[in-house]
User: Fold these one by one.
Assistant:
Number 1:
Amino acid sequence: MKTSTTLSRPQLPTADDLQITDITITPIAFSDPPLLNAVGVHEPLVHRVVIEVHTANGLLGLGECAGGSSRLANLAVGAAAIKGVSVFDTSRMEILIHEALAAELSVFERAAVFGAFEVAALDIQGHATGRSVSELLGGTVRDDVPFSAYLFYKWAEHPALDGRPAITDEWGAAMDPEGIVRQARKMIAEYGFKSIKLKGGVFPPAQEIEAIQALRTEFPDLPLRLDPNTAWTVETSRWVAEQTDGLLEYLEDPTPGLEGMGQVAERAAMPLATNMCVVAFDHIKRSVELNAVQVILGDHHYWGGLRHTRELGTLCQTFGIGLSMHSNSHLGISLAAMVHVAAATPALTYACDTHYPWNGHNDVIMPGVLNFVDGSVRVPGGPGLGVELDRAKLAELHQQYLDADMSARDDTGYMQRFVPEFTADLPRW
Ligand code: GKR
Ligand code: MG
């Protein structure tokens, strides 16, 4: 005989409870060493933004993205557009943000603004359901997300300027192959990375090839990558590809544009990778037609958030393109989001990039969650992103932003303060 039992359902928040009531956008500035790249040198402070989304039932979600005065204005427009929407309605959030932003804005900027809020919405979805962001994205296919050692040519210090004394750091100079190998040894000893990326485009290519050869000698088993951010012509890129045959797991953005990359790819033995010529979904068709790139570096900050980044993985699989992950100077909210999406993306085929060794000591999140062990970060258990804001640090970094009176990142202008004849005209060689 059947007996009836009354099961009491757990009290779940309603769509009204999960409506966005308030969004706080806090610009911050944190310190950065003098890292060199093809367009100049990193300034002493990085401008970034922390997003806090609040719901009617008092939940809080976090996001982080690049700063700049136009980005701040676009974030304010996006925030106003999604007030009152449930954090589970991310597709609706995307439509509203796209409608509200000025029509002439690039696809890239629109995706970046939405992406910052989508991460915060997913963080809240996790808090509302007791699940981690990676579970919400389909579950983890890896418990530990591998990252690569991201090496930069760098000055020993930010030189004294406008009455400000020189700013030294723990890394010292890396201006030649020996300096690069020294930097790699230090970074690998501290973080345990199992692959290496060198930011190139700083010195003539022959010198950067020497650095790659020195890294190969020092670390015979670690995959190596070189990324000159389009500093070379097609001809130079082909020559570098020939010289580094057998040394690189991929060559990243040697030359500008899909057509140029396609011409290099015709001759290069190694895969070509990009975070510069395929940066939005509508670049993929032409890239596939030209076989211009064999690896895409995804980045949830500009591919429109975590779900779209996972979708990028599906497209990469469809077209037989490898997937890696791009990074820019960032803190722990971004790192947590990067780890969750990497954990939930089966198509990810390479260790991800991260600037965290350069910037992580400035973090705005409570310590203890995001640790590098053998070059990998364990996926935070959640709920949500699994990270908590350090409010004292947020206030300090916001004050630093106010004191610095920053508008946008300017590696070129900063370089010209020391080397007036420097230009960012690329390709340079
Ligand atoms: O931090 O100087 C840098 C990098 O060059 C960065 O701006 C790039 O976007 O890391 C990036 C890349 O892979 O091209
Ligand atoms: Mg790159």
Note: Residues 136-385 form a domain with the TIM Barrel fold (CATH 3.20.20.120).
Number 2:
Amino acid sequence: MSVLVVGSIALDTVKTPVEEHADLLGGSASYAAVGASFFSPVKLVGIVGEDFPNEHIAYLKGRNIDLGGLQQVPGKTFRWSGEYMWDMNTRETRSVELNVFEHFTPTLPSAYVESPVVLLANIAPSLQSHVLDQMSRPQFVIADTMDLWINIARGDLEALLQRVDMLILNDSEARQFTQETSLIKAGAKIRTMGPKYVAIKKGEHGCLLFGDGEFFSCGAYPLEDIHDPTGAGDTFAGGLAGYLAARGNGSIGFSQLRHAVVFGSVLASFNVEAFSLERLRSLTQMDIEARYQAFHKMSQFEVLG
Ligand code: AMP
């Protein structure tokens, strides 16, 4: 099964306490599509300007990502710039230039409308809904979001939640959205708003997965050196969606989601080891499998009699 990914495609400028790099390949859809491509074929919907480097297009194509839904239009590509504080967790957005993204309307080629697994990566919830309007009954729909939409488009986000199977968001967004300090209450509350499953990401502390009376806590792979956390959440969502498309076998339930969350976490842990998507460029299936096994080993404990 393939995954349809829609979201932003950007040229990012990222500053950490030790390094700064400009005009890197970024955007929620870039990370998510490449993350998913390690497990399944991907169909990408997004927009770039005429300044978008051909080498990035060649890279995405080389990852078996179908670019039939990529619009390249006159104007400049969306640009985002952020700076990380010394804890490599706190981030400030320094600038946003919407450029061609300002008038983006995601339009699905006919070959995309029956995609079984859909990942609505971070864009305005009204655009995420517009994608679903064009589709015939996807099997599993995942949506990501961010603080901006909770602040300025809450109604659109609530409408979208009625139509998705799973929402992914981070801990501060879950608290902001539900006004609950407890993430356990927040996860349960979001489930009452529509999605059957909710994943709350906690950065370097892993992720919580909520289902119908079911709960799974997944740690994060312990890394000593993080070079660029940008896109970790998108890579997580992409890996999760790609894994579900590849292994869902027609039925996607809590047990498939538990594995998908672990594979998403494995991919995100690689992504933060270098700027932009650099680490994913050299990543192999053997690397993924080795880290998955290591993850499994460190998550187990014996029940004492
Ligand atoms: P994350 O680190 O998961 O928050 O994702 C960072 C990526 O999101 C960067 O590559 C940005 O280009 C992209 N991004 C930042 N702001 C927005 C926005 N308002 N809409 C869509 N994508 C964005």
Note: Residues 16 and 84 are 5 Å apart (CA to CA).
